[in-house]
Design a protein that fits this description.
mainly beta, seven-stranded antiparallel sheet, 1 helix, globular
Length: 100
């Protein structure tokens, strides 16, 4: 129920970063698309275990209030759109239907 704005910036290397800005003009969060291969350590292990035989559709590094999480959107082996949110320590924070 809150108004937010999204701004998209493309870096010199072609990578894009999305900025989520609150109505008062302050930065809420950033979202940067990355590849599954860019996940490392416990984050990669959790992602692979959670996804199983599903097909990855999108991976984003989200930074909010100095905290980094990773969102992995994928289709399950049954074709259902799912999303897993993983902390930078590799803890599964959220997992279920992708409602975006």
């Amino acid at each position: 129920g809150q108004i937010q704005y999204e701004a998209l910036m493309e870096k010199a290397n072609g990578k894009k970063i999305e900025f989520i800005i609150k109505a008062d003009g302050t930065l809420d969060s950033t979202e940067e698309p990355i590849t599954l291969g860019e996940l490392t350590g416990k984050v990669a292990d959790t992602a692979k275990t959670t996804i199983g035989t599903g097909k990855v559709e999108a991976v984003e590094r989200v930074t909010k209030d100095g905290t980094v999480t990773y969102e992995v959107g994928y289709k399950s082996s049954k074709g259902e759109k799912q999303e897993a949110v993983i902390s930078s320590e590799g803890k599964l924070l959220k997992h279920g239907p992708d409602t975006d």
